[in-house]
Design a protein that fits this description.
By secondary structure, this protein is of the alpha+beta class. It has one domain. It has three helices and five strands, in the order H-E-E-E-H-H-E-E. The strands form two sheets. The chain has a three-stranded antiparallel sheet with strand order 1-5-4, with no helix packed on it. The protein is extended. The two termini are 25 Å apart. This is Retrovirus-related Pol polyprotein from transposon TNT 1-94. It comes from Bactrocera latifrons. Pfam families: RVT_2 (PF07727). InterPro entries: RVT_2 (IPR013103).
Length: 140
């Protein structure tokens, strides 16, 4: 949890702020996973901070959302063209793609469990960048 929290701080994901009147803080939670090696042995434990998008209110925390995805028929066409012309295909994964996009509008989240700043217990976090779980994260 500490590593994930520190990486979010290093990425300048949020700033400490008071919740404005009329705004509602989106709840956050920790999601835990085990990373295993090829033999099935536990390699490391992983924690990810996510926003609970189900607690977002339409018109307050977000407006219309859209996430661009490729059609399956397009992928099949690319495979067919590559096979026809003997081309090589490569894929990449940007592991923190969501976390690198900046947000439009103001979104506030509650402090993650175990990381409440005791000097400012009534403050929340104003997001500067997207966080997993937000309804608008896929769009940014």
């Amino acid at each position: 949890m500490k590593n994930e929290y520190q990486s979010l701080l290093d990425n300048d994901t949020w700033q400490l702020a008071e919740l404005p009147k009329g705004q509602k803080a989106v709840r956050s939670k920790w999601v835990f996973a085990l990373k295993k090696d090829k033999s099935g042995k536990v390699e490391r434990f992983k924690a990810r901070l996510v926003a609970k998008g189900c607690s977002q209110t339409y018109g307050v925390n977000y407006k219309d959302t859209f996430s661009p995805v490729v059609r399956y028929s397009t992928i099949r066409m690319i495979f067919a063209i590559a096979a026809e012309y003997g081309l090589y295909l490569h894929q990449i994964d940007v592991s923190t793609a969501y976390l690198n996009s900046e947000l439009c509008g103001e979104i506030y989240i509650s402090h993650p469990a175990r990381f409440v700043d005791k000097r400012y217990p009534n403050h929340c976090l104003k997001l500067k960048k997207a966080l997993y779980g937000l309804k608008q994260s896929g769009r940014q």
